[in-house]
Amino acid sequence: MTRKHDAIPDNLAAVRARIAHAAAVAGRDPREIRLLAVSKTQSAGAIARARQAGQRAFGESYLQEALEKIAALADGPDLEWHFIGRLQGNKTREVAAHFDWVHAVDRAKIARRLSAQRPAGRGPLQVCLQVNLSGEASKGGVPPETLPDLAREVAGLPGLALRGLMTLPAPETDPGRQRLPFRRLRALRDGLAAEGLTLDTLSMGMSGDLEAAIAEGSTLVRIGTAVFGPRG
Ligand SMILES: *Cc1c(COP(=O)(O)O)cnc(C)c1O
């Protein structure tokens, strides 16, 4: 393990302190908010350093590099791997086999493949549906209008456990404006609950906006830069 990873334990502690502070400001229990360390483009050595500091859940966006790191880190304590990238049909088999969570499901066809390809004996794959709140067609995510139909279908798939909703808003520095998409995601979650579909996870908040996300009810923040430093 090299010196260049020496900042990671302090970074993790600082992020955990930010989460605790944001929870206190919001009057929430900090234990309701999980920290997902986003390790895309980071080395297995960097992840090992975070693991040594007690971090167990890691988020990856690129399948090939993720599979290499999952294999390289299989010797130590059990890690929880989250696939947070855009998911194409030809990648579902490996994601279903090697990950514990998928955050960016936005089509029924992908969900059906993940369910069918989940190996028996691994338990259901934990799933969040990515919601597109910007209306930009180029961005991933299901539009809010068709979210209820997708949620009902995914909830019925045997290989999946539908846990919640995820969103990835456009970068925004104003804290008040940062909260708007997070508030909408929470309202969508509440709308599904009113229809009888209870979801326990709101995957929202990154290095630059985790306070705004926690203020709006985030239960899982996805933090890359603030844990590992800038991506190369
Ligand atoms: C890269 C990434 C993150 C982490 O972003 P940071 O700003 O580095 O914290 C979170 N979520 C998704 C979906 C990402 O792709």
Structural commentary:
The chain is globular and about 50 Å long. With 232 residues, the protein is α/β, with parallel strands linked by helices. It is 41% helix and 16% strand. It is built from nine helices and eight strands. Strand 4, helix 5 and strand 5 (125-130) form a beta-alpha-beta unit. Bound molecules: pyridoxal-5'-phosphate. Pyridoxal-5'-phosphate binds at residues 38, 40, 61, 84, 168, 206-208, 222-226.
Bound molecules: pyridoxal-5'-phosphate
> Helical region count?
9
Distance between the termini: 18 Å
What number is the mean pLDDT?
96
Helix/strand class = alpha/beta
**Tertiary shape:** globular
Low-confidence stretches: none
Number-wise, the strands total 8
Q: Reading side by side through the largest sheet, how are the strands ordered?
A: 7-6-5-4-3-2-1-8
Give me the Rg, rounded. Answer: 17 Å
The share of residues in helices is: 40-55%
> Can you write the helix and strand succession as a string?
HEHEHEHEHEHEHEHEH
The proportion of strand residues reads 15-25%
Sheet with the most strands, sense and barrel status:
8 strands, parallel
How would you summarize what this structure contains?
The chain has helices spanning about 10-25, 45-50, 65-70, 90-100, 110-115, 145-155, 175-195, 210-215, 225-230; strands at about 35-40, 55-60, 80-85, 100-105, 125-130, 160-165, 200-205, 220-225.
